[in-house]
Amino acid sequence: MTGGRHRVRRLHPGFLAASFALAACTDTSSIGIEEEREMGLAVAEQAAREMPLLQDEPVVRFVRELGAHIVERADTTGRAYEFRVIDSEMANAFAIPGGFIFVNRGILERAESASELAGVLAHEIGHVVERHGLEQMAKAQNTNTIVSLVYVLLGRAPGGAEQVALQVAGSAWMAKHSREAEREADRVAVVYLARAGLDPRGMPQFFQRLLNEDRASPNELLAWFSTHPVTEDRITDTEAMIAQLPSDAVERAAADLPQFTQMRRRLASLPAPPADPRTLP
Ligand SMILES: [Zn+2]
Prior knowledge:
Layout: H1 13-22, H2 33-50, H3 57-72, E1 82-86, E2 93-96, E3 100-104, H4 105-110, H5 114-129, H6 134-143, H7 145-154, H8 160-174, H9 179-195, H10 202-216, H11 224-227, H12 232-243, H13 247-252, H14 258-269
Parallel strand pairs: 1-3
Antiparallel strand pairs: 2-3
Helix pairs in contact: 1-2, 1-6, 2-8, 3-5, 5-9, 5-10, 6-8, 9-12, 10-12
The protein binds zinc ion (ZN).
Zinc ion binds at residues 123, 127, 177, 182, 185, 228.
């Protein structure tokens, strides 16, 4: 699924188009779904180039199918989501506007059930649906419009400056979401999970697992803490959100799937991730 397209070193034309269109305005309500995708695609392609992607089709397929299953019941706009697995043992995941979701192998390895992994995916899908980060990304791309314009006017081939521009756009997007955005992503995620027939309790369970790991041995592999701080409060809040769902929807939901176990077995048979995974700023 990660064909040569993502290896091509070029500035996506959509990036320029989006920048020009947005030059006068960063009101995100005026950004259409297509435009949002073009903006996100430029950043997603950059991320895909910078990150060591896991190329193992069966593992990636499971993540893609689990993600698509949640999306079907979460997003009615017709966004074309793409799910990629980064071959890094760090516990991290992020979403780029437009529907580009990256989840690290470290999340797949720490989750103990399909519903725990689904919780992370649903949270990231929530950021996309609620358009968190779109405004920051639009502003970052606007700032770099001048750089892009200069190059177009000079008739030079896109070079290092464009790469830098994209990195700035990327890092602006990667910046922490507000606590409110995090809460909102959690809130919509529990609803998506219940609709998808996946046990939303997997979400606070996974938060607890990360928190326990951090307490047992604080380590730099728990990158999710920096972008999605996990606290006892967040666990309690998520549990309270779940308590408001119809109880039969929660009771009937699947905590695990046999395909998850197969995916884990497959993952365990693969070579270890690169020792020094590059990460975005
Ligand atoms: Zn988040």
